[in-house]
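User: Here's a structure from my thesis project, written as structure tokens. My advisor, Dr. K., wants to see whether a designed sequence matches the one we expressed. Can you design one independently, without my sequence as a hint?
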């Protein structure tokens, strides 16, 4: 039977360790994922989308279409290329899609590219987020739906805060500009993942 997530007992494909037992970063970094992680992510991420979508539909349901297209192209393709393809989770061979706590199911169309994101990739990463949040924001303002606008803003801030303190502070993708993992934990991870460490070292010399 095909498993929904990668084997939690097997170290990452980039990791030189033979097992994760006794790894000092095991409790500080999320190297493996499960259904609970995915449900938690969806519970954090979806409320602002529901409120934003409701505001758009109240104005004109057809206006939802560009937002949906933007959503799937960004989280299903663009973000995967510019950000996820740098993630050690993405390096797993033999899987055609991402099996982590966020962007679950997005296709892996590109090679794994260890090391930091380029300036251009960071620009595209942020531009996509601004567009996705800005679209409902602009329509809520234009249609003077002040209550939904206030709720949307509160939920976006709550989402960002919850992600920062429950996910970004444990995420193994140090390339993401929103990553909050502290240097000491990064150093231990690099020591166990020489391929990743080497890519960061080479990039720092350029
Ligand atoms: S760094 Fe390697 S050994 Fe440590 S938890 Fe992650 S995959 Fe396992
Ligand atoms: S960067 Fe985050 S969303 Fe992308 S593959 Fe890694 S863990 Fe998943």
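Assistant: Designed independently from the structure alone:
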């Amino acid at each position: 039977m095909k498993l929904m997530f990668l084997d939690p007992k097997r170290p990452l494909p980039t990791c030189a360790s033979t097992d994760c037992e006794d790894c000092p970063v095991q409790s500080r970094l999320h190297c493996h994922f499960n259904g609970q992680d995915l449900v938690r992510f969806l519970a954090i991420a979806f409320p602002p989308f529901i409120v934003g979508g409701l505001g758009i539909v109240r104005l004109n349901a057809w206006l939802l279409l560009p937002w949906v297209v933007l959503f799937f192209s960004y989280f299903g393709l663009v973000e995967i290329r510019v950000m996820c393809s740098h993630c050690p989770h993405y390096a797993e061979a033999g899987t055609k899609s991402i099996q982590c706590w966020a962007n679950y199911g997005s296709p892996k169309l590109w090679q794994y590219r260890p090391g930091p994101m380029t300036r251009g990739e960071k620009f595209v990463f942020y531009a996509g987020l601004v567009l996705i949040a800005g679209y409902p924001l602009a329509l809520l303002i234009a249609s003077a739906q002040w209550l939904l606008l206030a709720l949307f803003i509160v939920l976006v801030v709550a989402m960002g805060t919850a992600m920062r303190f429950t996910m970004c502070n444990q995420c193994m993708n140090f390339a993401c500009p929103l990553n909050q993992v502290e240097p000491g934990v990064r150093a231990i991870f690099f020591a166990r993942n020489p391929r990743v460490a080497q890519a960061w070292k080479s990039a720092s010399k350029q």
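When you compare it with your expressed construct, this may help: Residues 29-204 form one domain.
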